[in-house]
Amino acid sequence: MFEELRYHWARFGILLVMVALVVGIAGCGIIAPAQYSITISSTVGGAVTEPGEGLFRFPAGSVVNLVADPDRGYTFFGWTTNADSIADVHDATTTIIVNKNYCFVTANFVE
Fold first, then answer.
1. Lowest mean pLDDT among 11-15, 33-37, 100-104
2. Quick one: 14 exposed, middle or buried, by C-beta within 10 A (0-12, 13-18, 19+)?
3. Do 18 and 41 fall into the same domain?
4. Which helix or strand (DSSP H or E) is residue 96 part of?
5. How many CA atoms lie within 13 A of 76 on its CB side?
6. Hey, which of 36, 57, 70, 89 would disulfide with 79, CB 3.0 to 4.6 Å?
7. Which domain holds residue 80?
C-alpha cells in the first residue's frame, strides 16, 4: 500500500513539473515591441507643442502627432529629420511613424 501511494505521489510531482515547464515556456513567447528613442526640438522662433520637446521613447511603429507653433513674428518653415516617415515636412501639424531608433526631428522657423 505504501509503495503504491509513493508511486502516485511521484507521478503527481512529475505532472506538476511538466505543467510548470509548459507554462514557463508559453510565457516566454510574449515579447514587448521594441522601444525607439526620438529627440524632438525646434530652432529659435517657435516650439514643438505636441508631443513637446526633448527625448521620447515610443514603441516601434507608433504614429506620433507633431505640432509646431511659431512665436509672434516667425513662420513655420519645415521639419528637419533623419527619419523618412514624416507625413508632410512642410506642414506644421503632421505625423511621424517611429520606425528607427535614435532619430531626431527639428521644427524650423524663420522671421
1. 11-15
2. exposed
3. no
4. strand 93-97
5. 21
6. 89
7. 35-110
